[in-house]
Amino acid sequence: MVNKFLLRGLGFFNDAYDLSVINIINVILQDQYTKGVYTAQMKSNVSSAALIGAVLGQLTFGFLGDMYGRKSCMVATCVILIVGGILCAAAYGGSAVNTLWFLFVARGILGFGIGGEYPLAAASSSEDATSTADRNRRVALTFSLQGVGFIFAGLMGLLMVSVLDETKTQLEIMWRVLFGVGVLPALFLVYFRITAEEPEAYKTMLTEEVHLRTVRWTFILKHYGRSLVGTAGTWFLFDIVFYAQNLFTASILSVVGAKSTLRTIALQNVLISLVALPGYYVAVFFINRMGRKNIMLMGLTLMTIIFLVLGIGWHSISGNATVFIILFGLTLFFSNFGPNMSTFVMPTEMYPTAIKSTCHGFSAAMGKAGASVGSYGFALWVDNPSFGYIGTWYTFAGISLLALIVTWFCMFDHNGESSELDNEFKALLAQEDMETRKSFSHDTYAIEATPHVQRV
Q1: What is the total count of domains within the chain?
Q2: Helix, strand, or coil here: 95?
Q3: Which has the closest alpha carbon to 72: 111, 124, 27, 32?
Q4: Is 327 among the domain residues?
Q5: Using an 8 Å Cβ cutoff, are 400 and 298 in contact?
Q6: Which of 34, 403, 418, 451 has its CA 20 to 30 A from that of 380?
Q7: Are 424 and 350 in contact (CB under 8 A)?
Q8: Is residue 199 part of a domain?
Q9: Contact between 297 and 406 (Cβ < 8 Å)
Q10: What is the pLDDT along the chain (456 residues), one digit of tens a residue?
């Protein structure tokens, strides 16, 4: 039997691989089809398709996860990952342009499954915890497999470009194999998810008949609106930066330093991922020691500073690949030891069990909406002579600063037990029901007490 950590974490590894493998595939497709066919616009379309699908998946499965349970929904997302991955690997449209549009649709389907994993993995990981500290550590460890997925995607890209030549036929083999590999973890997981059980906290909630069927969005916004501004707003802003970086690292490296081969770009891409990866595990170590909000504030502050350095010194930094790899890698390190980890963990502690999946899914969806903005816009921004990379780095610095401000005013650590939030939620819901019944009774009495006027 696969343990609970791998049951959720391996799915997240799968998601990260599927999202980030487009990084090196973008360069491969551009070499195969040339910039005349794989234009900046088409690159933005293909890169952002999975993110747009993820927004829909997060909203849909966040809601369904609270309505129908974590288990059945995680089986469904696993199946969608398999179907979407197969469609990506088999993409064909009769011509280069049609094949790319087929890939756009297939990536959207894949993204729908990827998106569903976010709220379900987060909610179920937190609900199996034995204590507050264990809850944060479990969720953080599950999320840390995103970094492993990024590394694996980079290594697979490096392997493909090392064993195959850069002919059109072999370039096509490269990207199809890279997409196909992403199907394997989901194929492995689907049986174990079918035989898994619901988390205890969710089962307890069902026995008390307190779940999303009894809650209106007006209630959620009234009592948890500020928290939603914090979790959704920071995730939206941060992911504009984070996914623009991660999905286009290989494209950025192609313009840094001397003219590089595909193999050199793939190697440098792996090196950046290696610099970034420890950030996840430093965050896991400090998740309870520093607190999630402090980690987020620290990471955003350092990201803002490094982006300003990149913007100010771009003319000299762009000619030195080593300096760029260190600075760019550090922005990703402090993303992971910072807002990337905190935006995922904090919704699991800021919302009660009955609406946790829904609110986490909504927040994650706003994150992927931001990622779509970054993914779609990045290729267009850097190709604009009046904006370019310098304008992009300054924009990233400004967005990071804005996310820091929202974090300061709208985010909080909850160091108590989840049951405290659940009890508070039930009390608020009972109070709301009582007020509704009183209002209804008063209206009914007023109608009955109104004298009937006989029409003459």
Answers
A1: 1
A2: coil
A3: 124
A4: yes
A5: no
A6: 403
A7: no
A8: no
A9: no
A10: 457 778 888 888 999 999 989 988 998 999 999 989 999 889 888 988 998 999 999 999 999 998 888 899 999 999 999 999 999 999 999 999 999 999 999 999 999 999 999 999 998 888 887 788 888 999 999 999 999 999 999 999 999 999 998 899 999 999 999 999 999 999 999 999 998 888 877 777 766 655 555 567 888 999 999 999 999 999 999 999 998 887 777 778 877 865 667 888 888 888 888 989 999 999 999 999 999 999 999 999 999 999 999 999 999 998 888 899 899 999 999 999 999 999 999 999 999 988 999 999 999 999 999 988 988 788 788 888 889 999 999 999 999 999 999 999 999 999 988 889 988 988 888 888 787 777 655 555 555 555 544 433
The span from the CA of 443 to the CA of 404, in Å, is: 47
Residues listed for the chain: 456
Closest CA to 426 of 133, 210, 275: 210
CB 352 within 8 A of CB 421: yes
The DSSP call for residue 450 is: S
Look at residue 455 and tell me if it is in a domain: no
Following DSSP, what letter does each residue of 393-443 receive, concatenated? HHHHHHHHHHHHHHHHHH-----S-HHHHHHHHHHHHHHHHHHHHHHHHHH
Amino acid found at 159: L
- Beta carbons within 10 angstroms of residue 259's beta carbon: 7
- Asked whether residue 429 is domain-assigned, the answer is no
CA distance 54 to 451: 57
Q: Can you tell me the distance from the alpha carbon of 263 to that of 247, in angstroms, rounded to the nearest whole number?
A: 17
Token pair in block for residue 262: 């595909």
- Residue 273 · residue 265 · CB < 8 Å: no
- 207 is written with which tokens? 């026995």
Measure CA 225 to chain center.
Answer: 21
If you ran DSSP here, which 8-state letter would residue 213 be given? G
Residue with tokens 């307890």: 204
Largest distance between two CA atoms of the chain: 97
Sequence-ordered list of residues with C-beta below 8 angstroms from that of 68, at least 6 positions apart, any chain: none
Q: Which residue segment(s) compose the domain that 159 sits in?
A: 8-190+219-414
> Environment class of residue 41 by beta-carbon count within 10 Å: exposed (0-12), middle (13-18) or buried (19+)?
exposed
Could you tell me which residues come within 8 angstroms of residue 197 by beta carbon, excluding any fewer than 6 positions away? Answer: 71
Q: Please provide residue 244's backbone torsions phi and psi, each rounded to the nearest 5 degrees.
A: -60, -40
What CATH number does residue 141 fall under?
1.20.1250.20
* 325 in Cβ contact with 38 (< 8 Å): no
Structural tokens at position 419: 């049951």
